[in-house]
Amino acid sequence: MAETERANEKREAKEPGGAIDLDHLDRQTLGDASLRDEVLAMFAAQMAQLRGELGACAGEARARLAHRVKGTAAGVGAWALAESAGRLHDAPDRDDFASDLADRADEAVRVVAKMRKDGAFWRS
User: Fold this and answer.
1) Could you tell me which of 70, 72, 75, 98 has the C-alpha nearest to residue 28?
2) Residues 64-73: what's their mean pLDDT?
3) Residue ranges covered by each domain of the chain
4) How far apart are CA 87 and CA 112, in angstroms?
């Protein structure tokens, strides 16, 4: 992969509108690469399960799920995902908010998988 593509992936991941704020994640994990990898893997696994869970719940259960996702996303710096989860938490019967949350979770999983596969996550 060309260096320009790697730089674009890093930028996509850490820009305010990107899926993951890597600077925030670095602070959360105290710059420990092994811990970052473990946290990122757990985050991606949780977000991969989200779509099925969203489809299986409604009302208060959906609000609890959204609350959990909001905290998890904020922990890794997935700000847009956390914001989306917050909207669903406040209005759990809004299917459009649930769809947006699922889409953002899918995007976060995609970005994490691509970064890990290409080695773009780790920087010096």
Assistant:
1) 75
2) 96
3) 9-118
4) 23
Torsion sign, CA atoms 83, 105, 56, 70? negative
Which residue in the block uniquely carries the two structure tokens 């409604």? 58
The residue written with tokens 């993951």 in the block is 20
Largest CA distance in the chain: 47
More confident residue, 53 or 14: 53
The CATH number given to 9-118 is: 1.20.120.160
| pLDDT tens digits along 25-62 | 999 999 998 899 899 999 999 999 998 899 899 999 99
- The identity of residue 118, as a single letter, is D
What does the alpha-carbon distance between residue 87 and residue 119 come to, in Å, rounded to a whole number?
Answer: 33
Sign for the CA dihedral angle at 111, 117, 119, 121 comes to positive
Residue 90 CB neighbour total at 10 angstroms = 12
Name the region of 94 (left: φ>0; alpha: ψ -120 to 50; beta: rest): beta
Please give the structure tokens belonging to residue 95: 């299917």
